[in-house]
Design brief:
Helix content: 55-70%
Shape: elongated
Order of helices and strands: HHHHHH
């Protein structure tokens, strides 16, 4: 019986959270349009962030790119967290802070993955 590693669990958490938001971003759901309109980044910010999150999710699962995927995921979630704190508010459209909470979870998991995969950085070898 093969045991799933801690890093694989973290990668799955990050990827699932990032990938589940793609439907909302790519189909221009009202919640997503509202967020990016408030940030004055509609539609390019919505679609662009979706593409970046898709790329980061894929990169997490390849040994040569997993550090960079975690770095991209961490960066996008840092922007999301700062957007919530300074522009959107913790609660958006009565979501009880769910989007903010998911961003924080993704950020923390990405930071742990960055630390775990720090030896994968090519330019430090």
């Amino acid at each position: 019986m093969k045991v799933i590693s801690f890093s694989n669990i973290l990668k799955l958490i990050v990827a699932v959270i990032l990938l589940q938001t793609l439907f909302f971003k790519f189909t221009a759901q009202p919640e997503s349009v509202y967020i990016f309109t408030t940030l004055e980044a509609e539609p390019f910010g919505r679609i662009g962030s979706g593409i970046v999150e898709l790329i980061a999710s894929i990169m997490l699962f390849f040994n040569k790119t997993r550090f960079y995927g975690a770095f991209i995921a961490m960066g996008t979630m840092l922007v999301a967290i700062l957007s919530h704190l300074f522009i959107l508010g913790i609660e958006v459209n009565n979501d009880k802070g769910m989007l903010f909470t998911l961003a924080v979870i993704t950020f923390v998991c990405s930071c742990v993955l960055l630390y775990k995969f720090r030896k994968d950085i090519n330019f430090l070898r």
